[in-house]
Amino acid sequence: MASQKLTSYLTAPVSAAPLAVFRIIFGGMMLASIVRFMLKGWVTELYVLPKVYFPYYGFEWVKPLGETGMYALFGLMALSALGIMLGLFYRWSAVLFFLSFTYVELIDKTNYLNHYYFVSVVAFLMILVPAQRHFSLDVLRKPHTWVSHVPRWAVLIFQLQLGLVYFYAGVAKLNPDWLLEAMPLRYWLPAHTHLPLIGPLLDKVWVAYLFCWFGAFYDLTIPFFLNWRKSRLLAYFTVVVFHVLTAVLFQIGMFPYIMMVSTLIFFSAGFHEKVLNWFRSIANVRQPAFPKFAELSAQPLLLNLLALHFILQVLVPWRFMLYPDKLFWTEQGYRFSWRVMLMEKTGTAFFYVRDPETGGETEINNRDYLTVAQEKQMSTQPDMLLQFAHMLRDDFKRKGISAPEVRTETYISMNGRGSRLFLDPNVNLAAEQESFLPKTWILPFNDDKLQQEAVGQK
Amino acid sequence: MKALRNYTLAILAGFTMLTACDSDGDSGPKTEYDRQAMLANYADNLIVPGYEKFKTETTELSTAVSAFTASPSEATLANARKEYLDAYKVWQDVMTYEFGPADDQMLRSNLNIYPTNASKIESNVSAGSYDLQAAANIDAKGFPALDYLLYGKPTDAEVTALYTSDANAAKRKKYLQDLANLIKQRAEATYNSWTTANYATTFKESAGTAVGSAVGNLVNQLNFEIDLTKRAKVGIPSGRQSANIARPETVEAYYSKNSLELLKRALMAQKAIFMGVSTSGTNGPGLDDYLDHVDAKYNNMLLSDAIEAQFDAAIAAIDGVTVPLSQAVTSNPQAVSKLYEELQKLIVLTKTDMPSALGVAITYNDNDGD
């Protein structure tokens, strides 16, 4: 009975305006992001120039497509974002956008950002909703597809997804480093003392604590305050202030702006209808007078698929509990969990390749293989360190050494703790395999113990 | 309206917790750090005086080379060698500042790519015409090429003979002079950019610690330089990158055997940059003071003290090497290994702990972080 009630609640008709506005906003922001990305030269810098890439486990088949191929892919991505915005060939656009965007993200872990993952997730959800059937060019092309109302779930899933992002970002902040040490903001904020007005304050420790505690409170509660009609306006004002602040303080590109406009989905249908009517008055178009509800034949299937999606979304951020030791140290189960700006983690990795036949060992200059960004990301993440070890193994095999051994001496400084040895420097990583199992060659994290010793070459 | 009030109350409650927490957080920066004063110290007391001295030394080098080529003798050769070594040492003082003007002048590529390519130099000399800016000539110019041209034969008489009785003497004199002039010209151009073209002001007024900011450039270049000191000055010659097979011919200043002296000068310069010590020896506001300001710790001591001590340990380890480095890599590998290990420890501190505490971004696009 309860499930029937839930189903009828989820499928009840609601105004299509919020979904249409969200479609326009999402498509528009994506188009702007892609154009910006191309104009900054990042397509070449991140997907053409590097000599090697760090694909995800199980996605090693995802490879860059060469200069022409990558620009074509980004062109396609931009066109499909435009298609989403205009609601033109919408279903094709949404599928193409999801595939092209996700493909690019899977090429190299170096460029992993929670907000790219967010875009992929939302793009996936966009495929499933009838967002083109209201205020779109598709409706102009095929007027009979027009609807005034869509099932409630089509709007709800975006609110839920956004709510999950914020809430889990808040849960992730409930850790001792953030709450008790004000780390890493205590190190990051003083770098901005040149800013007008707030600049001088950023040097104060209490301000770092304020930001930390307010940030956690904000992330944990904002979905609820946005959802609640009476607190919505104030909550949205807080959203704007919060994201403007993060845009000023951190180099996070388009993300704050995307969040600022995406959260408008929490606003009432009346608000979105006003927005659309304003557009209509400019374009001088009218909408049909009689309401029409979008009947979706695949609805039961979609609801099951969405249930599965959200169960995964709820569970995935907790998978770190299946791994031993401190999450920040091992980063096993760190990604895809909305852990945002939690760590100042810097590493230095020295790699040694040994030829067991001669005993001769060669130290690697990482930059001979990697870009600055790749080296930085690789130096702190065990799975990337292992991948680099395998790249070295394969490269030395090509150079004629039949069974090269690869060791790394890696030091990590994390949230203000002095640098310490990260991986077992005696393990031959060439012989280790990637898997979802715990990586036994990560040394145990010890809060007090420093292990600075030059292991060097044997 | 009740909801609004509840929300406000909740926020206020949050703030109260913060204030309660504040009293515990007493170990952070207490006073504002004057980053502008630090940058001014670097520009006015280290970088500009450093380049000024370098300009003077390279001018003297060029003059001494002119005197030698005008009348080659063992006496004029000795003077040219002296000026060469003086200028090469001052280069170690300023080579870290490879951003802005130095980057424009491609100072490192023009001045100090080693090991130098003797056969390329010889073929340039006998050809009599060459383009020193051609990519192919990157290892046939600068101080390492002068090192070969001024010390390339076992005795002074033999070197002098190359500029007097040798068939290619005239062409060799011209090549030597062209190299010395190129060094002088690039040094002058860099100095002028900092002074008359006022890059110093740009540097001093640069805000924040992002990529391309003055602090970011300084920290990243200092790390790059320490890394290069370990790798190129010690690592490659001692076979660290060639399966433990020593490559003595790859040391800096191979022919004149000045490698260790230059290495020591380089490390002392890097230490001075870390500490903000001026060319006249005054300790001004530097990166170490900034680390102290954010109370960066290492192993229960101040991080700045740990880094300073590690610089000293590395410099002391140089003295453990008692013969020229090109010999020591085969005759005394233990002492070289000790030196190498101290440099490795230094890199861990400056490349891992220091940028963390400074909040310096070491990535090149703002797609970083989230």
TrEMBL record, chain B:
Keywords on record: Signal
Predominant place of localization: other
Pfam families per UniProt: Peptidase_M75
Compartment(s): Cell envelope
Domain Imelysin-like: 47-346
InterPro entries the record matches: Imelysin-like, Imelysin-like_IPPA, Imelysin_sf
Family annotation (PROSITE patterns): PROKAR_LIPOPROTEIN
UniProt superkingdom: Bacteria
GO cellular component: cell envelope
Protein name: Imelysin family protein
